[in-house]
């Protein structure tokens, strides 16, 4: 879920054209969760093949990113989470419990025929298993894009990749990439341009937004370390935060006192061990060396994987393969034009 910083972060709408020709480091699980929540059948159930294995994520990965590749000449580096940091395990356990309750409510509503209400629970009830992760990695590799597994948090590794100039921005909905010092972050990289809001029972129109670290810090008048301390006061995946303190109040506190260390003891006692959380963001564990190889898609392998193994429509897969052929051709031509 990441840290809630939305009210204080400056964003610029750039549209899909603002992504043209860019390489994006994608927070893979962030995208996969979106597909699992939103790509569903008429009764709110995820799409499945005949043996029951879920395929909603494969539909989303194949068709969103092939469209972005052909229409906007984008390329992608998909970064997956590694084993969770010990401090994050408690948060992950809370999320599992929340999803379990939402899943139970989802099936109760389905049994009553209340499909619209059930869909709102489906968005929360999403779970990811080994099949979903491994099948996603296989599909991405067949499409010719690099797959990297981070030591811990995918956003930390993605931020590092962008910082080194191997990608233009981190593509994620979460703000944690900023805390990990990503120079640029792009939100809402989507073709359909809508997001379902469960609490309001409606969808809203979305457009890609660019967030630049230098702009954020200048507007807020704080340092990156202070931004991380604002996040710690609000609460992160690694700590609970201070009760009753949201982004605006946290920002005011840090501006007033300069740091958590100088806060009144009545506030500071609510975040024991904050130094460990600060260190996670300021000195993230990442791989300094990684392999980035953009390859021509394995068209035959893709057809076998999607049609034969996962029961996709042959016509839809032919459309996908044609897109990828054209996108690869455009990429080769652009490379030749450089010489």
TrEMBL record:
- XPG N-terminal domain boundaries: 1-102
Give the record's keywords alphabetically: DNA damage, DNA repair, DNA replication, Endonuclease, Exonuclease, Hydrolase, Magnesium, Metal-binding, Nuclease
- The protein's role, per its UniProt record: Structure-specific nuclease with 5'-flap endonuclease and 5'-3' exonuclease activities involved in DNA replication and repair. During DNA replication, cleaves the 5'-overhanging flap structure that is generated by displacement synthesis when DNA polymerase encounters the 5'-end of a downstream Okazaki fragment. Binds the unpaired 3'-DNA end and kinks the DNA to facilitate 5' cleavage specificity. Cleaves one nucleotide into the double-stranded DNA from the junction in flap DNA, leaving a nick for ligation. Also involved in the base excision repair (BER) pathway.
HAMAP family (UniProt xref): Fen
Query: Belongs to which family?
Result: Belongs to the XPG/RAD2 endonuclease family. FEN1 subfamily.
Q: How does it assemble?
A: Interacts with PCNA. PCNA stimulates the nuclease activity without altering cleavage specificity.
Instruction: State the name under which the record lists this protein.
Output: Flap endonuclease 1
Could you tell me which species this protein originates from? Infirmifilum uzonense
């Amino acid at each position: 879920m990441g840290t809630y910083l939305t009210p204080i972060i400056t964003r610029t709408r750039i549209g899909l054209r603002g992504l043209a020709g860019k390489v994006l480091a994608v927070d893979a699980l962030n995208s996969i969760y979106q597909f699992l929540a939103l790509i569903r059948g008429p009764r709110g159930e995820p799409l499945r093949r005949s043996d029951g294995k879920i395929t909603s994520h494969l539909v989303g990965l194949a068709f969103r990113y092939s469209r972005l590749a052909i229409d906007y000449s984008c390329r992608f580096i998909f970064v997956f989470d590694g084993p969770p940091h010990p401090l994050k395990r408690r948060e992950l356990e809370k999320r599992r419990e929340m999803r379990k309750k939402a899943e139970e409510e989802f099936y109760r509503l389905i049994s009553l025929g209340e499909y619209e209400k059930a869909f709102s629970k489906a968005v929360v009830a999403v779970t990811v298993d080994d099949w979903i992760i491994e099948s996603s990695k296989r599909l991405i590799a067949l499409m010719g894009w690099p797959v990297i597994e981070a030591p811990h948090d995918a956003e930390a590794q993605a931020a590092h990749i962008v910082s080194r100039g191997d990608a233009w921005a981190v593509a994620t909905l979460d703000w944690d990439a900023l805390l990990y010092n990503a120079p640029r972050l792009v939100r809402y990289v989507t073709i359909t341009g809508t997001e379902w809001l469960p609490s309001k029972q409606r969808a809203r129109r979305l457009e890609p937004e660019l967030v630049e670290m230098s702009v954020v810090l200048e507007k807020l008048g704080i340092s990156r370390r202070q931004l991380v301390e604002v996040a710690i006061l609000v609460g992160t995946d690694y700590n609970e935060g201070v009760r009753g303190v949201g982004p605006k109040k946290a920002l005011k506190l840090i501006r007033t006192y300069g740091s958590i260390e100088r806060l009144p003891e009545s506030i500071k006692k609510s975040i024991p061990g904050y130094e460990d959380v600060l260190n996670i963001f300021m000195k993230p564990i990442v791989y300094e060396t990684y392999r980035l190889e953009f390859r021509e898609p394995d068209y035959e392998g893709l057809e076998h994987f999607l049609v034969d193994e996962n029961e996709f429509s042959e016509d839809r897969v032919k459309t996908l393969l044609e897109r990828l052929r054209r996108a690869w051709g455009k990429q080769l031509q652009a490379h030749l034009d450089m010489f």
